[in-house]
Design a protein that fits this description.
mainly alpha, about 70 residues
Length: about 70
């Protein structure tokens, strides 16, 4: 009889942890939504960038050096 009571307590703790975890996920999701104001400004800048390119650094290699006279 004691084992049934212990099993029930264990199950109740498991369910409580599950509820707490779901609440944390929901809060995190809401916080993430509140952090973004819905503007497309950041999306547009990411679309225009070339993958692997660091902004502000010119990595172009000249095709031919200029002849010096």
């Amino acid at each position: 009889m004691a084992t049934t009571f212990l099993k029930r307590q264990k199950e109740m703790k498991r369910l409580e942890k599950q509820r707490e975890k779901a609440e944390r996920r929901a809060q995190k999701k809401l916080a993430g939504r509140a952090g973004t104001d819905g503007s497309d400004e950041n999306v547009n800048t990411l679309e225009n960038e070339v993958p692997g390119e660091v902004p502000g650094i010119d990595t172009a290699v000249p095709s031919e050096p200029e002849p010096q006279i």
